[in-house]
């Protein structure tokens, strides 16, 4: 009898500490942790399962542990794309943290599906949840479209559309249309890329015109004509049915009216820019005034202020006057001495002409001239 009891105890210990199968998901539970950074967690996974999940790529994770906006009480949410975010494997659970915060009051559906990770075995586990309502978020609207001017060149290269909140992917070319003043829609004016061009925050979309309708001598321009014609007026319309990343529609349709002027084929010339130098001992902005409007987004990142030794000066950038003025406000007071504004020669105007190269550069058989990566504008801050 003692030997039998010893054998039975051994069997129970083996059963208790034996590793669980890496294919079952019957014990998985999904829960939501609210707070400053809400996230969704899946618990009940074995050590072997967790170890296997550590090797997943983001593409695989999106199939295994996906969170979507739930459009109806019984909907599985599959019609909407999975939310973007970050997956992490912790000691006893996996967690999904969305790139853009969950919106209070909106219903979501999280699905943990073990099959893509564990050889097709297991069954999906789903959980609907709603983040408690708190402080209301900003209304979803278009905040600005650049270029901001009311007269734009016939060979305009692109628009930047800014939103107040992160937007959904896959709707841009359906929701943005171009119309002539009389209401007629311009056919196929924009370049429709397979992967939409968004910034990291999901609040700025870059919309290119079809290059074949800008450059002369190309078939699209010959067949359809230019997307914009000098002397005409147009309306860029952004439909309110466009949904945010959290599933809400824009508050209202946005319209930008503008008139088209002559095409611009001249390159930006830093030698013609005017510099207004601040006084030492102040945080007054350094100002550059351009001869014509330049690319709004590039002005935020391809100009910087440095010391003659190359040390970067920390500060903030502001662009105004319809992209014809650039202002740099330093973090610390200006010190007397010499400085430089370093400008990348990739900086473009509204028509894609850069400092280093015109947009419509004729093809020649001669050897191309090397273009420097940067140019420097020197200035001196005088002692008080």
Rg result: 28 Å
Shape: globular
Overall number of domains: 3
* Helix-strand sequence: HEEHHEEEEEEEEHEEEHEEEEHEEEEE
Number of helices: 6
Q: For the record, what CATH class of the largest domain applies?
A: Mainly Beta
N-C termini distance: 100 Å
Largest sheet: 4 strands, antiparallel
Helix and strand content put the structural class at mainly beta
Contiguous uncertain segments of 5+ residues: 4-25, 73-78
Mean pLDDT across residues: 86
> Which strand-content bin applies to the residues?
25-35%
How many runs of DSSP E, i.e. beta strands? Answer: 22
Q: Would you give the CATH topology of the largest domain?
A: Immunoglobulin-like
Strand adjacency order, main sheet: 1-2-5-4
Question: How much helix is in the residues?
Answer: 10-25%
**CATH architectural designation of the largest domain:** Sandwich
Map the helices and strands:
Layout: H1 2-17, E1 29-33, E2 39-43, H2 47-53, H3 58-64, E3 65-69, E4 85-89, E5 93-98, E6 107-112, E7 125-130, E8 142-146, E9 151-153, E10 158-163, H4 172-175, E11 176-180, E12 197-198, E13 204-208, H5 219-224, E14 233-238, E15 254-261, E16 274-276, E17 286-289, H6 296-299, E18 303-306, E19 315-320, E20 325-330, E21 337-344, E22 374-381
Parallel strand pairs: 9-15
Antiparallel strand pairs: 1-2, 2-5, 3-6, 4-5, 6-7, 8-10, 10-13, 11-14, 12-13, 14-15, 16-17, 17-20, 18-21, 19-20, 21-22
């Amino acid at each position: 009898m003692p030997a039998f009891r010893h054998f039975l105890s051994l069997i129970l210990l083996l059963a208790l500490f034996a590793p669980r199968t890496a294919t079952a998901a019957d014990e998985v539970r999904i829960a939501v942790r609210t707070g400053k950074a809400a996230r969704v967690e899946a618990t009940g996974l074995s050590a072997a399962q967790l170890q296997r999940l550590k090797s997943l790529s983001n593409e695989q994770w999106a199939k295994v542990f996906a969170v979507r906006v739930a459009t109806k009480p019984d909907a599985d949410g599959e019609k909407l794309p999975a939310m973007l975010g970050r997956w992490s494997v912790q000691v006893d659970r996996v967690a999904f943290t969305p790139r853009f915060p969950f919106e209070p009051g909106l219903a979501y559906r999280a699905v943990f599906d073990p099959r893509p990770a564990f050889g097709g075995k297991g069954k999906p586990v789903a959980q609907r949840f709603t983040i408690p309502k708190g402080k209301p978020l900003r209304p979803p609207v278009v905040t600005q479209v650049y270029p901001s001017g009311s007269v734009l060149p016939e060979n305009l290269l692109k628009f930047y559309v800014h939103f107040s909140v992160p937007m959904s992917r896959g709707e841009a070319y359906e929701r943005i249309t171009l119309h002539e003043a009389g209401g007629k829609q311009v056919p196929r004016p924009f370049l429709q890329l397979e992967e939409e061009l968004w910034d990291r925050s999901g609040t700025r979309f870059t919309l290119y015109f079809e290059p074949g309708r800008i450059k002369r001598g190309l078939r699209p321009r010959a067949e359809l004509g230019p997307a914009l014609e000098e002397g005409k007026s147009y309306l860029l319309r952004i439909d309110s049915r466009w949904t945010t990343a959290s599933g809400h529609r824009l508050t209202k349709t946005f319209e930008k009216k503008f008139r088209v002027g002559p095409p611009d084929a001249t390159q930006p010339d830093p030698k013609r820019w005017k510099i207004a130098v601040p006084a030492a001992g102040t945080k007054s902005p350094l100002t550059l005034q351009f001869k014509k409007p330049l690319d709004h987004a590039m002005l935020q990142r391809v100009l910087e202020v440095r010391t003659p030794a190359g040390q970067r000066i920390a500060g903030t950038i502001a662009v105004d006057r319809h992209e014809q003025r650039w202002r740099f406000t330093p973090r610390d007071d200006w010190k007397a001495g010499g400085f430089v504004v370093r400008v990348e020669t990739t900086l473009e105007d509204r028509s894609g002409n850069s400092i280093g190269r015109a947009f419509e550069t004729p093809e020649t058989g001669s050897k191309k001239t090397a273009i420097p990566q940067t140019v420097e504008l020197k200035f001196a801050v005088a002692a008080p």
